[in-house]
Amino acid sequence: MSDDQDHGFETDALHVGQEEPDAEARSRAPPLYQTTSYVFEDAEDAAKQFALEKPGHIYSRLMNPTVGMLQERLAALEGGVGAVATASGMASLNLATFLLADVGDNVVTASSLYGGTYTYYTHTAPRNGVETRFVDTLDYDAYADAIDENTAYVHCETIGNPSLVTPDFERLAEIAHDHGVPFFVDNTFATPYLCNPIEHGADLVWNSTTKWIHGHGTTVGGVLVDGGSFPWEEHADKYPEIAGDNPAYHGVNFRERFEDAAFTYAAIARGLRDLGCQQSPFDAWQTMQGLETLPARMDRHCDNAMGVAEFLADHPEVSWVTYPGLEDHETHDTASKYLDGGYGGMITFGLDAGYDAARTTVESTEIASLLANVGDAKTLIIHPASTTHQQLTDEEKAAAGVTDDMVRLSVGTESVEDIKADLDQAIGQATH
Predict the structure, then answer these.
(1) The domain containing residue 397 runs over which residues?
(2) Does residue 260 sit in the same domain as residue 408?
(3) Is residue 121 included in any domain, yes or no?
(4) Which of 221, 256, 290 is a domain's end point?
């Protein structure tokens, strides 16, 4: 494959990072480099690699050839200049916050968030001296009003979990950049197949690769993608880990040495080195296997989800349905603008009979599995108020869009008629 030739997403998902077979064994599948460390050519080679003067592999906490293939592939699919694979999605969020926010800083984020992200911002980040300012996901004036000279970044999700709202990325990017801070987007629910936030102004993107990117419920992982667009050097005092003289490397300035990929190399050399949140070679190898079929799976997820959403909208026991593909969804027009090829695989809905009926529904399905994950090829179901968002106060649940009657459904790739029939019998058990 020629390096200067543009290819489609489906082709890149299969080939980027391994355009040619493995040089040693001519393996067509990505090789698994299950090793902790690497033999240097000589003492000079070792010294230059440790000084960041020469590329190479030192230790698998920093770099590994198998992990590197996955990073290169995901960077290409997200439209970034580099990527860092991490042990989980939450590890990616923590890594970015570690690099961007210092004691006394704050983060401005949309309030419609995955429960783990919300808990990280409310309980973990403050222990490191970082305040979080939550704003209504769709109140753009509120973002601008919340930003001050100590704001480290602005954050949102492509498709909010579990409210499923899609904010106006270009507007949020403009707000963030007008205030001199990067715009950071969690693209987990859309994946790069449906949305490229970097194309719409995001500077950094993260994914829980555990979900649709891998897609088979066996491998936990995350990725942090560097858009290469933020002018770190203009804000060196604010972001010294990226654009300042780094004392951990005898004054190396990542922006000067690595240019547009400064954040990527800072995340590796400072973040992975000191936090130890790297993805294992085996997990990266498994994630690449899942990634190869992402386009086909996402098409099926989206088609099935639309069919299930329409079925639920007509169900006599269902009081409301939220799915970005339905025309009555509050951000349907925005989702149609930014999501290309579908509206994702997530649905939330409520029952007229309320809390108890919602809980009975999720434990009465036969095909859908009651568990905390999303993005599996299999259909998954849960009651957020009593599980994923249980730790939140009533006020925080309301801000996140979680109601007592809410059922969250991750629509799989089974027969859509079987999924509908399963939901129908479960709802029937809960309401009769």
Answers:
(1) 294-431
(2) no
(3) yes
(4) 290
Profile the chain (432 residues) by mean pLDDT over runs of 10 residues: 73 93 84 95 94 91 96 98 98 98 98 92 97 97 98 98 94 99 99 98 99 98 98 97 93 95 97 96 98 98 99 97 97 98 96 92 97 96 87 79 92 99 96 86
Confidence (pTM): 0.94
Which pLDDT score, from 0 to 100, does residue 123 have?
Answer: 94
- CA distances, 253 to each of 61, 204, 259, 307, 314 (Å): 21, 20, 10, 52, 59
The CATH number that applies at residue 406 is 3.90.1150.10
Q: Final residue of a domain: which of 240, 261, 290? A: 290
203 plus 318 within the same structural domain: no
Domain CATH number, residue 271: 3.40.640.10
Indicate whether 243 and 177 sit together in one domain.
yes
User: What whole-number distance in Å separates Cα of residue 180 and Cα of residue 190?
Assistant: 27
Assess if residue 3 is contained within a domain: no
Q: What is the pLDDT of residue 397?
A: 80
Whole-number Å distance between alpha carbons of 339 and 165: 12
Residues 239 and 335 in one domain: no
pLDDT at 272: 96
The answer on 233 and 141 residing in a single domain is yes
Taking CA atoms, 151 is separated from 128, 171, 229, in Å, by 15, 18, 18
> Has residue 1 been placed in a domain?
no
Phi, psi of 197 (to 5 degrees): -55, -30
Q: How many domains does the chain contain in total?
A: 2
